[in-house]
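Before the break, one more example. Copy the sequence into your notebook; we will annotate it together after we see the structure.
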Amino acid sequence: MNKAPHPFTPAAADFVANPYPAYAHLRATGRAHYNPPTDQWLIPHHADVSALLRDRRVGRAYRHRFTHEEFGRTPPPPEQEPFHTLNDKGMLDLEPPTHTRIRRLVAKAFTPRTVEGLRTYVSELADALVRDLVADGGGDLAARVAEPLPVAVIAQMLGIPESDRPLLRPWSAAICGMYELNPTEETAARAVRASVEFTSYLKDLIAHRREKPGDDLISGLIAAYEDGQSLSEQEMISTCVLLLNAGHEATVNATVNGWYALFRNPAQLAALRADPARLIPTAVEELMRYDTPLQLFERWVLDDIEIDGVTIPRGAELALLFGSANHDPAVFTRPAELDIARRDNPHISFSAGIHYCIGAPLARIELAASMGALLRRAPGMRLAAEPRRKPNFVIRGLAELRVEV
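Here is what the structure looks like once it is written out:
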């Protein structure tokens, strides 16, 4: 167990730009490292991260078993209540049995058939977005393709009218700011405002769908029953927000991170261009591994656990380092190298255990569709300028990726 100083500095721009050397140091020097600035235990190894995602002695939440005081934690400020009401009723931040009930009900509406039914829509939208990018000779790949595609797809699933869709991305960005380490008061204030506005919007939309159901996901959530139980209004609202946030943030960052990685590895890009039909499926998985869009996932220790001979007590917080786990040489051959043909690729970019990403199949469809459209319509696409990076570490990506075609 390592309590010595280490190179985990998530507020530093150079660390955010390339955290992987620091991860290698963490893996080489221990299985768990206490980090005083965030009051977390950093877990860098794939085997530990994977096991802890499935370990019921740790959880995404603790309020199902303890009060804040019993757990040794300070309650959030009262002014943040709208954000926490919205966030804490989403299944990502719930534990059994409530999580089990909600996930089963959501799965009744979010079926493989529903996702597969979107394949043509996703493909056509990706093609249209890329066609417009090519017609302009290029532009910002983030703003022109990576962002609008998954937002439109989730909005289509939820049944949000096209005229309202520009509201979604700003609300989502403001709310997701709270998932970074040590968010500022200003970040919290933005998240609260977005939570209030988004909740109000969805209440009206849910009321409309109760009166006039459609074939959209919100109508499906309203209709979902199991053993006489249904989702409450707040659970539906929180689920919709979670599906939007989780359903596009990772896909946006996987797209821009992935293309930036390909531009920096021209031999791999050439191979992909030469045989896209064969390589797109493995390229999607490898790009998710190589530059992981969600770098850190938090867990609370609900019962004492032991790692490397040292007890981590109840009440501690774990930082499961997905980016480090995805570069662990104990699991991946030559992990620092991009290999778009990699077959043995048990990356954990979609998490694992009961909180495995319910939208992973849809994300894969979106990533493959945009990659295929860009390879088809912009076969000579190249980097026009070094990208601007977002300052965020947890949800890590590029603010801009300018390309020429």
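Residues 77-287+337-404 form a domain with the Cytochrome p450 fold (CATH 1.10.630.10). The CA atoms of residues 71 and 272 lie 50 Å apart. Try to locate both features in your own notes.
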